[in-house]
Specification:
alpha+beta, 6-stranded antiparallel β-sheet, 6 strands
């Protein structure tokens, strides 16, 4: 590796991590200052608080690292340009493409690191972060527990009037089984409860009606233990469950949600694609940041930072707006995840060509 490569790569990676190490403690202090009274009022244990802020660190680092990286590249590249180092490098006979090579190496390293974090570390942090929030701060329930209606596979639907996730039980359970448009049988129970020690469901006041061409068969029991083709959490899944699953489990979960026609399917698919698109955005933001900051401008570093922040804001704006469209409508989650990447990739390549010409 050439001296130039080591120099730029050191700046690329070092500035990025310094920026994260500077901003994350600030974020923790701001969050703590907002919640300190709630911590005291709810008598939150110290060990839970510490674990919460560890999860908080990973959660927000994974959420905001593209912006941190973008700002760090603009900052150190602008410093190189303002000190005439970029001019000196290019004047020595090195092409702009060769100058840009260590940026690509750095982007590849950050992309791989971000991919590993988003696939395997951030889900666990998201689970701890959200569980703590819903336990102590968020008034809205973390799952819909009233009038729950779910399709569990192509042929069966379940309904419960209310679900208690702590006791793992529900009232007024109904399961209907269809073949085509024809109802084949229907199961009802006044209550259903998961028996963890036996890995089965216990139904009280159970009755089963089977419909045949010759009429109807009716069967009932006061108490019945049985198994079903769904888990107890399927009665009322946690709203943020997709965020908490590592890659393999998330793919299987999405397939399960697709088979049962979940209304939250698009959100889960968007979460999956974001785990791929955000690491790829590292390259896109690197293109734009180098193109914006590598030329010496009359406004200096401040002008480059202002221009970079504007472009970064537009990137985040597009990403968030499309994410809301997915959550509130039938907008394609694939387009929502990848359209900002492709759009700003075109802008980045255009700016790079204009800068290098």
């Amino acid at each position: 590796m050439k001296i130039l490569d080591r120099y730029i790569l050191k700046k690329y990676i070092g500035t990025f991590f310094v920026l994260i190490l500077l901003f994350i403690p600030i974020g923790i202090m701001v969050d703590l200052s907002e919640k300190i009274d709630k911590f005291k009022a709810k008598d939150v244990p110290l060990d839970e608080t510490i674990l919460y802020y560890i999860d908080f660190t990973w959660y927000f680092a994974n959420l905001l690292y593209p912006i941190f990286l973008f700002l760090s590249i603009i900052w150190f590249t602008s410093k190189l340009a303002s000190n005439s180092e970029v001019i000196a490098i290019l004047s020595s006979g090195i092409s702009f493409r060769r100058f840009f090579r260590p940026f690509i190496v750095g982007a590849t390293f950050i992309c791989l690191l971000a991919f590993l974090v988003s696939m395997y570390i951030a889900p666990s942090a998201s689970a701890g972060y959200n569980e703590f929030r819903y336990k102590y701060f968020v008034r809205n329930p973390e799952r819909n527990t009233q009038e729950v209606f779910q399709q569990i596979n192509e042929k069966e639907y379940i309904y419960v009037s209310n679900y208690d996730p702590i006791r793992q039980s529900a009232d007024n359970f109904v399961l209907t089984h269809f073949e085509g448009n024809e109802l084949k049988f229907k199961i009802k129970a006044s209550s259903i409860r998961w028996q963890k020690e036996d890995s089965l469901f216990r139904l009280t006041k159970f009755n089963r009606r089977k419909f045949t061409q010759n009429g109807e068969l009716y069967y009932q029991e006061t108490l019945k233990d049985t198994i079903f083709d769904f888990s107890v959490d399927d009665l009322a899944p946690v709203n943020y469950v997709a965020e908490t699953l590592p890659l393999g489990r998330l793919i299987r979960f999405i397939q399960f949600e697709r088979d049962r026609g979940s209304p939250l399917l698009n959100r889960h698919v968007l979460n999956l694609h974001k785990r791929w698109s955000l690491p790829i955005s590292v390259f896109v933001l690197t293109f734009i940041a180098v193109a914006v900051a590598s030329k010496k401008r009359r406004g200096g570093t401040g002008f480059n930072l202002a221009l970079g922040v504007t472009l970064g804001f537009l990137f985040v704006f597009f990403e968030k707006v499309l994410g809301v469209l997915v959550a509130k409508s039938t907008f394609s989650p694939i387009i929502a995840a990848w359209f900002p990447i492709f759009l700003f990739a075109i802008i980045g390549v255009y700016l790079l060509r204009k800068t290098s010409s």
